[in-house]
Amino acid sequence: MSDKKPLLRLENLTKHFPITKGVIVQKQVGAVQAVDNISFEIYRGETLGLVGESGCGKSTTGRAILQLHEPTSGKVFYDGVDLTEASNAEMREMRRNIQIIFQDPYASLNPRMTVGSIIAEPLEIHNIGTAAERQERVKELLELVSLNPFFINRYPHEFSGGQRQRIGVARALALQPDFIVCDEPISALDVSIQAQVVNLLEELQDEFGLTYLFIAHDLSMVRHISDRVAVMYLGKIVELAPRDAVYENPLHPYTQALLSAVPVPDPVVERKRKRVILEGDVPSPSNPPSGCRFHTRCPIAEDICSQEPPIWREAEEEHWVACHLVK
User: Fold this and answer.
1) Which domains does the chain carry?
2) Is residue 167 left, alpha or beta, with left meaning phi > 0 and alpha meaning psi from -120 to 50?
3) Residue 3 pLDDT exceeds 60
4) Three-state secondary structure along 77-88?
5) Tens of pLDDT along 231-290?
6) Parallel, antiparallel, or unpaired: how do β-strands 73-78 and 6-21 relate?
7) CA distances (Å), 214 to each of 129, 222, 237, 240, 301, in order?
8) Which long-range contacts (CB under 8 A, 24 or more apart) does 253-257 make?
9) DSSP assignment of 181-242
10) What pLDDT is attached to residue 220?
């Protein structure tokens, strides 16, 4: 994959949210380091899974890529164009190619708009087609996500969570984008519905050649859909490798701990597995630990881990890790 040209490239992307004090005159007294100096690439047509605990910066990364959160520093290159330097007009045009599926299908759809209006809104914003053509496009999109096109005049409250997420998928597809940030698109859904939505995303990827950043908690689902997996902890990427390499040979202690919590369907294997229990709570992103951010909970940490940040390096072919103790 190294000879391919990346569709998306992050260079030292950082997003800090200021902490202010005072009522009349607000003074910054600190910052929440939600995303801190991360770099990775996503290749055209692939799915990169981004996993980690709640609050580690996954969703902020996705929103910073789309410039929904303005990065504090760093670069985001989409197809060679630096989005952080793009004007509002240029960014508006770029948004036809980059879209997002939001996490909560209940909060991301306007309850006062019909399904037809919700899906047609991107087409109206970008002045695509006549009213009649937009209506036909909406019906096509509803059929594409396996919903009845006669639902066009219904409201979001008339649908289940899985159906609402399909409406969100249809809205994201309206402008025929190349790249979609899937921001935990299944975490708010019943387990029985999750597989349907993931299968739909895979079918659409095959049909339209889409590229995904798939943000999720569910490691088994990430393994199913992803080509490569990035593991995030407290604003940092700690490991990045092809899917099978991460799941069969995790190098970072944090990745090993995450995977040890995933149940295995074979009871014989499950009984023999050693569970890695992480002690303590995740440190505050407003005051992260010195050195390696994971050292306060790492079962194998040494003195150097608390003193120096680990170097992001390629430990094996296409297998990147940030850990002092990985040989």
Assistant:
1) 6-97+177-322 (3.40.50.300)
2) alpha
3) no
4) EECCEEHHHCCH
5) 999 999 999 999 999 999 999 999 999 998 877 777 777 777 777 888 888 899 999 999
6) antiparallel
7) 31, 8, 15, 14, 30
8) 253/294, 253/298, 253/299, 253/300, 253/323, 253/325, 254/278, 254/294, 254/298, 255/231, 257/299
9) EEESTTTTS-HHHHHHHHHHHHHHHHHHT-EEEEEES-HHHHHHH-SEEEEEETTEEEEEEE
10) 85
At 118, the amino acid letter reads I
Given a contact cutoff of 8 angstroms between Cβ atoms, the answer to whether 76 and 83 are in contact is yes
pLDDT of 120 reads 96
pLDDT (average), residues 130-146:
94
Give pTM, 2 decimals. 0.91
Using 50, 70 and 90 to split pLDDT, how confident is the model at 307?
Answer: very high
Length of the chain measured in residues: 327
